[in-house]
Each structure stands twice: as structure tokens, then as C-alpha cells.
Amino acid sequence: MDAAIELLAEVGYEQLSLRAVARRIGVSHAAPAHHFIDKAGLFTAIATEGFQMFVEQTNAALAARDDGAAGELEALGRVYLEFAEQHPAHFDLMFRPALLHSRDPEFADASSAAYIALRSHVEALQRDGWHPDADTTALTTATWALVHGLSTLRANGSLEPHHPGISTDQVLSIATILTASPS
């Protein structure tokens, strides 16, 4: 998987092949297929690992906080932004179900764990008065879409023309414009 992640960074998911991965690690062309069946299987394994790493990083960040749901929501946003920057191959594949075996049980469990973590923090915020009457699923999805969109725009360099050298803190301040409690 490490070789595949390196190749993803070099050539992108469109050009990656199991044969290229085999060449990279010096094994027969059939070896990766033995472990992953096909390219989608390899991508599913990478995406699953990505969600597992993301949940671990999220849990570690939240364990270090004791400032309530609002602080934890900021920590989740920060982890999301940093994960997208530090693990671009994982991040890209995690949200491309057409490239994956998205019904794979390990993948489904890992991706659900990430969503459930966010939802639980949105529920805590709602109990504290943040959009208390909003549909929790819709609010969770909107929160996820906001941070995912900003993370993707930043990772792809699309924020750069409008916000040169934008830091994680600056991206989070943009998110706060929409996530702050209404007056």
C-alpha cells in the first residue's frame, strides 16, 4: 500500500495500475492482485486505512481538549484540514465511492465511524444551543460539507488566489463565519 500511495502522488488514480505497484516493489505483476483482487480493491484498502487514521487522529485531538463541544468542533475541523494536507492520496480516495468497493464491510465501518464522530459533536452543540431545532443529520452533513469543501479547495490550491498562504487557522476562521451561533 505504501508503494501505491507513492505512485498515487506521482501519477494520480487514473494512471495507477496494479502492475505499476508490482514493478515499484519488485514483485510479480500478480502479487498485488492476490492481495487486492483489482485496482478498486487496492483503492478501498487505502480509503479504509485513511478513515481509520482520521478517526485515530480525531480521537487524539479530542482527548486533548476540555473546552466543550464548540472547541471540539474546531478541533475536528483542524484535524480534517490537516489530514487532507498530510495524507492527500488517502483523502482523495476516501470520498470517491465510484473508484472503490464501497460496500466493503471494513470500508463501510471505517467511513461510518468518522461520520458518527462528527454527528455526536453536532448533537452536543445542539444541546448547548447551536441550532437546537435543526435536523441533526442535515446539520451534520452541512458541517461536514463546509469543512470538506474548504479542505478540498485548500488542498487543490483553489483558495490561494483569493487567500494567499492561507493557514489552517485562517481556514477555520472562514468556517466560523457560517458555523457561529446566530445572534
Could you describe the 3D structure shown?
With 183 residues, the chain is mostly helical. The chain folds into two domains: 1-36, Arc Repressor Mutant, subunit A (Orthogonal Bundle); 38-179, Orthogonal Bundle (Tetracycline Repressor, domain 2), CATH 1.10.357. The protein is 73% helix and 0% strand. It is built from nine helices and no strands. It has helices at residues 2-15, 18-25, 31-36, 39-63, 68-86, 88-94, 105-127, 136-155, 168-179. Helix 4 (39-63) runs parallel beside helix 7 (105-127). The longest helix is centred in the first third of the chain and has 25 residues, at 39-63. The chain starts with a helix and ends with a helix.
Summary, kept brief:
By secondary structure, the chain is mainly α.
SSE diagram, text form:
Layout: H1 2-15, H2 18-25, H3 31-36, H4 39-63, H5 68-86, H6 88-94, H7 105-127, H8 136-155, H9 168-179
Helix pairs in contact: 1-6, 4-5, 4-6, 4-7, 5-6, 5-7, 5-8, 5-9, 7-8, 8-9
